[in-house]
Amino acid sequence: MAVLWFIPLLWAVDTSFKPESETTTIPVTWLPTQFTGVAYQSVFSSANIFRWYLNSALTSLAVTVLVILLASMAAFALSRIRFRASKPLFWIILAGLMVPGQILIVPLFTEMQQLNMVNTYWGIILPQIASPLAVFIFKQFFDSIPQELEEAAIVDGASRFRVYWQIWMPLARSAIAAVAIVTFIGAWNNFIWPFIVATGVDMMTLPVGLSTVQSSYGVRYAQVMASAIAGGLPVLIVFLFFQRQIIQGVAGTGLKG
């Protein structure tokens, strides 16, 4: 299955290095007669791609940091602070996993419009920071930490925030890594919301910007594949470097006791 999944990726890389005249030849050939980087040169020269890279990096990092902070604090409260509505509130948060993001586009855009955040970084970032999945992952991890550790810290005079920040968060490194990577990849690949809220070319993220470039290429498949590789390469590099943390974090948060 892994090999079958890898074939389209190899085909995209192979096509991106072909001369344009060889992308539509029949019969189809895998290796080009001459490797060329003309498609990549065309993509990087005909578009404001470096600005789109910067926009994607800024918004994805901001979304990741805010999701980690807000989700971990919410999970800590649900896991360690006993109050009457804790369980119903947790189920309501989990119910958010079943709500398709597409049905929220109109009210979110209206809200951003009223707050004058259309075509701004905050307009792209804020609607993406509510993550029920991140709250679930952190809560599962916090539930597995012995209660005695918190009680000992409180006896020593630590406040709840100090327990959260100096004890729970350092222990939750694997969960933080898992949430950070999943959130960053999701924010980097997000297309629909940045496409709607970023009305100017200079505010476009990489997936949105590349879609406008690809639409102008027509049947120039080498340039289409080159733009797809340019957009997906940063995410692939992040995953290759941190795949162990992803596996450890998901496995660790899924086990209790």
UniProtKB/TrEMBL annotation:
One CC-aspect GO term: plasma membrane
Residues spanning the membrane: 52-77, 89-109, 121-142, 222-242
Membrane topology qualifier: Multi-pass membrane protein
KW Transport (keyword) present: yes
Main location: membrane
Pfam families associated with the record: BPD_transp_1 (PF00528)
Subcellular location: Cell membrane
BP term (GO), one: transmembrane transport
Entry keyword annotation includes Transmembrane helix: yes
UniProtKB keywords: Cell membrane, Membrane, Transmembrane, Transmembrane helix, Transport
ABC transmembrane type-1 domain: residues covered: 53-242
Recorded superkingdom: Bacteria
Family per similarity comment: Belongs to the binding-protein-dependent transport system permease family.
Name under which the protein is recorded: Sugar ABC transporter permease
Lineage: Bacteria, Bacillati, Chloroflexota, Ktedonobacteria, Ktedonobacterales
